[in-house]
Amino acid sequence: MISRLRLFVAVVLGVVALAAPVTAQNVRIKDLVEFDGVRSNDLVGYGLVVGLNGTGDGLRNAPFTEEIMTNILERLGVNVTGEQFRPKNVAAVFVTGRLPPFARTGGQIDVTVSAIGDAKSLLGGTLIMTPLNAADGQIYAVAQGTIIAGGIEATGQAATVIQGVPTSGVIPAGARVEREVEFDFTQLSSLRLALREPDFTTAARIESVINRQFGRASAIMLDSGTVSVDLTKSGARSPAHAVVAIENLPVEPERRARVVVDQRSGTIVMGEDVRISRVAVSQGNLTLRIQEAPIAVQPNPFSEGETVVVPRTETGIIEEPGIGLAEIPGGTTLSEVIAGLNALGVSPRDMIDILKSIKAAGALHAEFVVM
């Protein structure tokens, strides 16, 4: 088994050596960073959905639904004080949305509607005018419209079948912007670029590319996640023109060596920079089988004895085939090791256990993420 794994790894190494070198992929700066000030804002509101086909909230279990319905009717001039009504076609919901950067008054955004009571479905419902607030408590949009739910429910006398989530849905372009975020982008004298994946090498490359583009030292790396650009030195007519000149510049990002393992599905994802030091691996499976087979012993006929149950236990240990003591040479890439283990017929579950053990031994030089 040792020789088989060594031979396979050696063959793989030979193939890689003969293959053409792989060139790194360049990525646009706009796909690596977030521009300071160019961001969205989360919105949330509390509203009422009407027009449901008997699948709304039970008002005895959700008294807040009756309260908001009463408030809406009174604002419309309908006095329901002291009245008892128990409709089954209304549901209290949370409405969430995202105000995009530079959204202007009159623009429309998508919203998501989710039931918060015991409503069974929002299919066919209509959201009544709902104000949407931001973190500062101000109203920035108003939502209203017909809900498109992504689930379905079928109910019979003895069974119910639900597919998807009928208690949540969306309203495309269902909210209209009523207030703009007070931010004057044209007055910026400097612009900060925040890296989505902080890395000193990537930030230094972004700084170098921007300085080459403008022909002067207008960009400076502040830390692993921030690059500051002095717009007064960029020579651009406005901050917007400077962003246009920056965001499409190609940069080769530096990726951290990382291994991601999903134990539920047995999926293993790895980067090309993962390396393994010299290590020996031995793996096998043991199955312990215990089976009870009691025997009832009867007394002789016409005797005064009693029936006795005699215990009988059968045990056994089964060792399933695995890999023996396999030695992995130093400097081997993880992809080569995975390919070798696949060739030997190692299952994904056992492969994950092997990787965990190699990481615990300090031979796997990468960030190990288990999901």
Automatic annotation (TrEMBL):
Single GO term (MF): structural molecule activity
Record keywords, A-Z: Bacterial flagellum, Cell projection, Cilium, Flagellum, Periplasm, Signal
Localization in the cell: Bacterial flagellum basal body
InterPro entries for the chain: Flag_FlgI (IPR001782)
GO biological process per UniProt: bacterial-type flagellum-dependent cell motility
Pfam hit, one: FlgI
Any GO CC annotation of this UniProt entry: outer membrane-bounded periplasmic space
Signal peptide: 1-24
Family listed: Belongs to the FlgI family.
PANTHER family according to UniProt: FLAGELLAR P-RING PERIPLASMIC PROTEIN FLGI (PTHR30381), FLAGELLAR P-RING PROTEIN (PTHR30381:SF0)
Subunit structure: The basal body constitutes a major portion of the flagellar organelle and consists of four rings (L,P,S, and M) mounted on a central rod.
Function in brief: Assembles around the rod to form the L-ring and probably protects the motor/basal body from shearing forces during rotation.
Protein name, as recorded: Flagellar P-ring protein
Annotated source species: Puniceibacterium sediminis
